Amino acid sequence: MENGPIPKAVKFHPVVAKFGTRTRGMTAYLLSQEEMINKNYPVKGMPGFEEFVCTDSVECVSDSSPLYGLDCEMGNELTRVSLVDSDGNCVLDDLVKPDTRILNYMTKFSGITAAILRPVTTTLREVRAKLMALIPRDAVLVGHSINSDLTALKLIHRHLIDTALLYRKEFGQKFKLKVLTEMILKRQIQTDEKKGHHPTEDAVAALELAQYFIKTGPRKVVEHHLEELWGYTIEEEIIELPAPTPSHRFADILQTLGRSVAFIGKRSDVALDLSRQQWLNSDKQVLASFRRQAECPFLSVLQLSSLSDHLKRCVPHREQQYHRVCANLRDMCVVFAGPFPAGFTQKEAKRLFRRCGPVRKIKMLNTSIRVHAEVEFELLEGATLALKTLNGLSLQGQSIKVQRPVYESMLDVDLTLDALAHDALETSHLYAVRSKPSVTERINNSAKINGNTLDAKCPGAAWVKTANGSHSAKGNEKRLQLETELSEESLTETFGHFGAVERIILPARAGKHKRHAYIKFESPEVKHAALSSSGDPRMEDYLICPSLTPPHLHSWAALTPSKVDTEGGDEGSGHMHVSSQDQEIELAVGKLDRCLGKLFRCLPECTLSVVVLLGHESADDPRPGLCFMEIKSGSR
């Protein structure tokens, strides 16, 4: 069968293309050092693995060397290690005490709970030493994506087989261990009846998959499972297959066009020509190497890994810091207001404050004497406008005071808001919210009567009651609904009188009346002209202020409420608790920022610079990353 004609479906199959058609011994399927380096397996002497421990293995192994199956359970931390011998007998199955606190055990997948780990005292160092004592010097370790297991163990072993790379798919895709076990070994693992994965079961599955592949040979493995596993049939291949689809990866296209592409960084799993890669240990070395180049490549990929490496070492603290930052952002969107007239309701308070922007929630504070309210806006601009336009407003002859909360986190809020207002991304942006004409007129009159002069940059608009307690615009609510809703056309027409309008950004939520918007002008001068237009009759129905909310914060702010509420609600709000780890992260960010500044300054003119800060992908807790782009010009 091995010497017969080879069908095209088999001949060009990725398994056969890699391993050939002949049945060979175990050593033919060992990962080479080059493969391990390219795919970021722990390798002695490579950057990033300086703290890893090496097993005492022989230089070369034979086809008769013992094969051991290895599997670990880990989320953010290693929690369990299993090792089986060549016969599938379990020789090690130990729970591991994590080095740091685990916030999410991912029990559905790991089977690990806090109760299971509570009595465990075995450390990573101890279980690793135990594992190394059990592995013969000439042993070959096999696992499914075994690089993850070795990384969790901080262990280096030179003789490896990875079943994820034996049963390979096109374009570097991999089968799940569960699928391979069901299709090849005809049994099920990781089933719904079981709570989480069992590492011993997974280690045995990886061992038997490797043994079957070695015994059967790559050609027969493909022919026997071509349809059920890879979805092809030999008969279909009588038809000529179309030419392979050319790669559309940016780096590949550039290399096809003869453009130079280079990678400088710590990791080695970037699919570029090895001759164009430089593997270095620190951001300082990466920067120095790039600056030493006589001529910049057409595309340079630089990995500055100091910040990400630091964050990986403090995962639990990073979670706490994220929720604290969300709480601080919430504090910046909160104002306290009062006292209100007796009987003033939450609905009336919302109707009043939403004239400054969308309100997330209002909490009425009924003291023993008077009524106050805690108002949380969705946007920073809403709180700012409320302070400027509603503080000192008269309601039924009673003046209300609007102020920010006095929290530790708010001590430097004025400096923070000033920095946001003068950010390079916000220099030409304006925030505008539209109120009803009748409301605007009454609020202006009320302000004049009470001696409260509204900020020149923020023409007055709010909700008031007349002396007899009736709502001044309630009867006209439906009639004026269309008048207060904003559109790109109406905003462009109104604000276009001050200069060219580049873009209008309206809220994207369906079913909501659009009362606020961000306006981007052609230049900062046009924006300042609009801010100085308090006497312009066209602006009587608008509240405006400089834009404060960075564009990327809209997606993050959408995640804030649930995070804050679930992580302790309002308890301890405003307490910053700056720790040494906070200071270390701040120093790491500052160091990265200075490094990027030096890098940007040494770039040639007209170079496009793209800085990517990776996000965090998770089904339960996704967090977006950040991408900054800038073309270097003579003024920068």
From TrEMBL:
Phylogenetic classification of the source organism: Eukaryota, Metazoa, Chordata, Craniata, Vertebrata
The keyword Hydrolase appears for this protein: yes
Taxonomy, superkingdom: Eukaryota
Domain RRM: 333-407
GO cellular component, one term: nucleus
Keyword match RNA-binding: yes
Protein source organism: Pleuronectes platessa
Protein name: RRM domain-containing protein
GO molecular function (one): RNA binding
UniProt xrefs under InterPro entries: Nucleotide-bd_a/b_plait_sf, RBD_domain_sf, REX1-like_exo, REXO1/3/4-like, Ribonucl_H, RNaseH-like_sf, RNaseH_sf, RRM_dom
One Pfam family it belongs to: RNase_T
Keywords: Exonuclease, Hydrolase, Nuclease, RNA-binding
